[in-house]
Specification:
Length: 496
Amino acid sequence: MPEYDFSKPQRQSGIGLILIFTTVLYHLVRNLWVIIVYFLVREVSQRTLLLATLGVIVVLFLSLLYSIAAFFKFKFHIDQENREFVLQKGVFSSDVINVPFSKIQQVNFKRNLLQRVIGVYSIVIETAGSQQKEVEIKALSQDKANELSEQLMSLKHSEEVEETSEDEIPGTNNRTPKWHFKVGVPTLLKLGLTSNYLRGVAIIITFYFTLREQFMLEDTLPIEIPNQSFVGTGSLVFILILLLIGMFITIAETVIKYYDLNLKRYSDALQVEMGLRTNTRVSLKENRVQLFEVVTNPLQQWLDLYQLKLSLASSENDLKKSQIKIPGLPPNIISEVKDFFFKTEVTEKTFLVPHKIYLLRKISRGMIPAVIGLLAAYFYQEMLSFAFIGGILSLYVVLLTVYNFFYYRRLKLSVSDEFLVKYSGIWNRRQQYIEMYRLQSISIQQPIWYKRRGLVNLTFHSAAGDIRFPVLRISEVQPLINYLLYKIESTSKEWM
């Protein structure tokens, strides 16, 4: 591998200009797609078409000039004297980003389809403690990207420890993994078939009504199926086709997003690589993962398919941000990953469950639509069949009660010497693990209507987000709170 002198300002690969230009065009199309669709569905005069063509040519020329300027303005280098990585970019205004080596969390690789075609890599430098969460260099050759990654991680490591053997340096790519697991296409197809494909249906419906409203296509895209009753055969066929299309979208989305998913376990890191449209490679160290979540549903559990959600340390107070999702894993791989991140065995000793008033509150809140429906049926009996509406609402109440009962039965908090584990969910069943020494603080909320009964809601705060647990007796959880506060204050372990 050739050596590069990153102490001098470097530019991206020359072929990366194609990537910059294509990215600019992509953002233009994304923002102006409504105008493009308008020209496709409406008849326009030749004069309008000519003016539009001239406008497109001007936009393409200006985009090319902007891309060339952005390419030459984009520079980066390693400043050994000030112990930081420096990146300069900007066309109309110059933006200089200085990332101290100690603030670098990890260096990841990304490649979309265009980057694969033109043979370049994208380097993403994740940082901590700054508004600029990520620093990205989008067009580097493979050798240059690998060497930059290794140098940055070595410099970061030298800030943390004084002596480290060569085979323990993070970021090296020539090590042999302890174990390797790959999720194949058949497994991804099973995941797509057993996932919630109503999201795909929602995408279709949203796109349909967006076209209808934006371009006033009420006649072309009617809101109802003509000459069919709601319970007619045509409507049922339409709903079935809609569900099949939604299933196809969900399967395609799953395969594209997680294609060629690989897990490699090294001595100091877990490497995750996945993606067809955007290929991402992330190296996870044990101290970066704050929350460990296992998700499955009954169908996927029957197929031995589980999804891991690893929440990383972040300044964002949201579990969905800075989260790595790894689906399609069997139980033995889940155990292997858990053993890597948790040096202590998870032994569950005590279980806390919400007070029964939580179940009554959820059922009573769900009753509000039923009450409104009954009132509407009573006052508009001429337009609505009171018996028919009453039957539907009775079924709704039964389903509501059964659903909330099983949701309540599933919700529990496990407490051991070193771990908190929250169990929740009926269809999507979740287990959220957090080591006690990683907790930042604990919040106690007590609404006025809880005070007389001595009930509280608890929120456990970590650097990767919050875990909330509702309606517990203060007399039962006070010893736990005291113990957790003691663990937070007395631990000497590095939580990040």
